[in-house]
Each structure stands twice: as structure tokens, then as C-alpha cells.
Amino acid sequence: MNADVKSLAVIPAPKSCKLAGGNMVLTDKSRIVASKTELMPLAKTLVTEIEQLVGLTLETSDKSASAGDIELVIDAGLKDEAYALEVGKKATVKAGNVAAVAQGSVTLLQSLSIREGGIVLPR
């Protein structure tokens, strides 16, 4: 287990992790973007979970993701329960199926923190 994995307080621990440094800030303008129709129920659930966790209410969208958004993506290249969480200007949770995207969204929720700069995800 590398040092970046150890620094995250998420369960289960990811197979691999590479932190670039800094944070992505979520604001009231951030959205949960579902790239496919079948991801919209998960996007709506994520809105509720983020609101309960940190008190921030986000909108859902089926448009293109922008900086500050959380994007949910089906990626046929990822198999079974594998998922990837990439955080840069936007946060992307991608997996080969809806259930695995949901698992990735749990990692995203566990990664959220409230800091002086607002509600953040580590990059």
C-alpha cells in the first residue's frame, strides 16, 4: 500500500492512489453530472448524500461537466467492480457499470472534507 493510499481515510482502501496535491472546491454552483440516463438516479442520491454530509445542495445535470462538477461516467474499459476516481478541475467517478460507479461515489463521499476554503476533495 503506497503512502497516498494510507493518507486517505476511505474503506475499502483503493488498490492504488496517486495524489497530485491541492484540492477541488465544491460550491453551490457545482453539479452532479450523469453522462448516461441510467446514472441519473445515482446522481440524485449523491445530491442527497452530499447535502446530509456537508450541508451543500447541488443540482443534477445531463449536460457536459465543467470545472467544479462531479461527473458520473460509464467506461466499458473498466470491468466488474473496478472504478476510478479522478479529481482535477472536476471530479470524475467512472466504472464499467452503474453499481461500480455507485461504489466509486462512496469513495468520493468519504474523501469530502470541510476546510477553511470550503468543501473540498483532495487532488
Question: Gist?
Answer:
The protein has 123 residues and is of the alpha/beta class. It is 28% helix and 28% strand. Helix 2 packs parallel to helix 3.
Features:
disordered N terminus; 123 residues; five-stranded mixed β-sheet; alpha/beta
What does this structure look like?
By secondary structure, the protein is of the alpha/beta class. Helix content is 28%, strand content 28%. The protein has three helices and eight strands. Strands 3-2-4-6-5 form a five-stranded mixed beta sheet, covered by helices on one side. The protein has a three-stranded antiparallel beta sheet with strand order 1-8-7, covered by helices on one side. Helix 2 runs parallel beside helix 3 (98-111). The longest helix has 15 residues, at 40-54. The radius of gyration is 13 Å and the shape is globular. The two termini are 18 Å apart.
| Proportion in helices | 25-40%
Low-confidence stretches: 1-5
Q: N-to-C SSE series?
A: HEEHEEEEHEE
> How is the biggest beta sheet arranged?
5 strands, mixed
Name the structural class.
Answer: alpha/beta
- What would the principal axes of the Cα set say about the shape? globular
Distance between the termini: 18 Å
Instruction: Give the amount of beta strand, in percent.
Output: 25-35%
Helix segment tally: 3
Q: Got a strand count?
A: 8
Major beta sheet, strand line-up? 3-2-4-6-5
| Mean residue pLDDT | 89
What Rg is obtained from the alpha carbons, in whole angstroms? 13 Å
